[in-house]
Structures are given as structure tokens and as C-alpha cells.
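Objective 1b. Sequence-to-structure analysis of Response regulator of zinc sigma-54-dependent two-component system.
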Amino acid sequence: MSSVAKVLVLDDEANLRKVLAAMLRREGYDVTVAADGEQGLAEFQKNGADIVVTDLVMPKVGGMEVLSAIKAANPDVPVIIITAHGTVDSAVEAIKAGAFDYITKPFDQPELNAVIAKAAKAHESNRRSVRPDSKARAAIIGESPQIQDVYKIIDKVADTPSTVLITGESGTGKELIATALHGASSRRDKPFIKINCAAIPHDLIESELFGHERGAFTGAVTSKPGRFELADGGTLFLDEIGEIPVEMQVKLLRALQESEFERVGGIKTTRVDVRLVAATNKDLQAEIEAGRFRKDLYYRLAVVPIGLPALRERRSDIPMLAKYFVEKYNRRLNKKIEGIADDAMVLLQAYNWPGNIRELENLIERVLLFADGPLITAKDLPEPVRQGGGAQANSLASSSVVEAPTGETGLKDIIRMKAAELEKDLITKALEETGGNVTRAAKLLQISRKSLQTKMKEFGLRDIAPEGKEEGKDEGSGKDESSDE
């Protein structure tokens, strides 16, 4: 954890609250307690929390209502259910409704510590990630040809049982695609269970996936279903699939092929109906050659492969993404930034974005915190973006050789010239993509048509868009009906 996680504990048993709080504080967590669900939700609304641990059965407001309220307020906060042996089935239903995990009474400290640590890691990961919107494909932002291709695949395969393997660099939105696949399928009202394979210790992967019986290993004080069981009828998303150890890959392959498995320490075979979506930022072909990933599992996963482009490969989507994040953080931070100035947008599109969409979102949030407005300008951007990415390879550096400053030509002048070159290139490509239609090209570039016409005149690009190609142009009279006021 990058900072101390805040844990909110809700339980109507005073002794249990004290024991839980003491155990968690010894592990270094910042703990707040509440005597019931009503008090707990008031505390959460006032001061927030990184993790919520709540009893299932409480007076006034029960654990399921707490879960629903927390998920509505902040879906990224993991909610852990405390349950007695007789209500394990209810706890499983809670997980299907979005709870992170559950622990049973009586519980031992290692079990509690393991669940809380896993929740803390998941919350930290969610906090840094781009959180998917609940509107399935509508939440995917972009109109570039690369993203249009992804849309087409989602439309064709979402409502099928076929396994999907999503590949792409970290921060490109793989979980967003998995959510869209589930949301656009007939399984949308069934569980969508997510697990980050990189966040689970190797010796616990099998138990996480397939569950375990009581006494199967040290600390297994009760039987527990795995993620495959919890996802029955719905979708199971295995993120960072390349992190699963080779010995577990055989069992995963069998579960995918036969739709059945046994819990750890059990003999009963369980059958499930699960649609699997996997994701990785690793090159699985290279992993296969290195002996770290099974070829047969790869082919079973990659029935439908979806490769997500890096943000630097879809630069025309940056204005749309940046606008979305400005609006998002205006609401969240109570700011009133109106947008991004042209000089800043040119630099955003020139930067290489090694962290992809996640990096762009984090940058916009940081800039909004300090910007005085009304527009974000070049001076508001961090130095690596203003300087074209520093030592990182970016489009400015790769498009042509940047010579060292000589004579009266300083670094700022070189950057200004290279930014102008990139701007001209982006405008040219937008006009070519739209067949010379100025109105549509301006929309694609997220600038006004008047600004685009000025830039076209400045760069000598008027011949790319004959007058008859402009939307709203009355060819007979020569009158431009859609000119900016």
C-alpha cells in the first residue's frame, strides 16, 4: 500500500468490534468502528473509507443494505461481509451482488489479515485505474479506426459463450472491455466476478478459483466457494492471466474445457456455466517460448482475441478522452474548468503516454487540482508533457530528427516548431479521414470549425477541403450556412 488504508468496521456486537479493531490496528490500518449499519453509513458518507467490513445481520440497516449503499456511493471500495456459519449462503449471494469477500465467525487472525490485505491491494489498484462505467460499450471513449474495430468485435461476440482474450499495455482499458462484453450479453443480470491473478499468492490461486473444503490447508476453518462457483451463470474475468503458475494452468484448462472442477480438499465434482474473459499485458507467445505459459491453454483462451491499441497509437481519441476526464473531475473536485486550450491539446497529443489512458486520467486530475482556469493551457501541464516526453520516445522525436539547439534557436523554439509540424500532420490526417469535410474534421479534432479553417489557412491546407466538401455549404450560392458566429 502506498499509504495507510482506512478500514470501517460495522458490527452490533461490541466485543467483536473491539477485537476486530485491535487486530487490524496491529497490522497498521487506520480503523473506525460503528455499532450498526445506519451509523456506519453516516460515518462513510462523512469521512469515507478504503475498505468496509460489515456484519451481515444487524438491526436497523443490515449488511446487504450497507453493501448496496457503498457500491452506489463508490464502487471501488471493497466491502467484506462477516457471517455466521448458518448464513454462508447469504454471504455468497452478497458476493454475487458485489461484495469483495466474506469471513465466517469464528475467524482467526491469519484469515482476516489475508482478506483485508487482498482488499487493500485491490482498492489501491482500483484507485489508480480507469473505472468502467456501468453502461457497457457506451463507456468506451473514442472514435479512432482502432477503437471502431474493437466496437465491432464486442458487438459480434458479446452475446456468445466464446472465451475472449484481451491483450494490451497496462492502462489501455482491458477491464473496461471485459465489463462491456458482460454488459452487452444476455448474462448481464448474472454475476460479473473479477479476480486479479497478480494480486493472489501462487499457493492460494487454486483456492481462489475453485474454492476449498474445511481443513484443506492451514487456515481453512470453513468451506468456501471459489470464483468459478460465484460466477455460475455469469462472467468470470481473469485479469493478468499471464501470472498464473504453470502447475495451475493445467487445472484451469480442464475447468474451461469440461466446465467442471473440484474444490481444494474435496472429492465432489462441481459443474458450472461460466463465460470466461481473460486479459494480460504480457506477450503470451513469448511466455510460451520461455516455458512459462502452456500453448494449449493459450489457444483455449484466445478463441476471440482483442488487442487494445496503446494511446499513442490512437492519438485522435485524446481530445475526447481529455474532455471526458475534465468533466469527470470537475464534478468530483467541484471545479469549473471549461476545457483545454489548443496549445495544451497539441502537447497532449504529442506526448507518448507510456502509462496510456490511466496516465492521462491521473494527469488531468492533477492539473485540475491546481489550474486557475478557465482553460487548461500549456503552462498548466507538467514538464515532461511540455517538453514532448523528455527522454521517452514520442511522436515529435520519432517523426523527424530533432537537432541540438544552435545559434539563436533555443529548446523552446524547437519544441514550438515540432509542435506546429505535429499539428499540421494531425489536421491533414483528420481531413483525409473525413474526405475533406471541414465540419467533421473539426469535430474529430475537438476544435471549432473556425479554428480549423484558420489553421488550414496558416498551414496551406485549403486545397485538401474543396468548398463543396464542407457541411452546410450551399454550392449554388457559395454561402456557408454553418459558419461560426
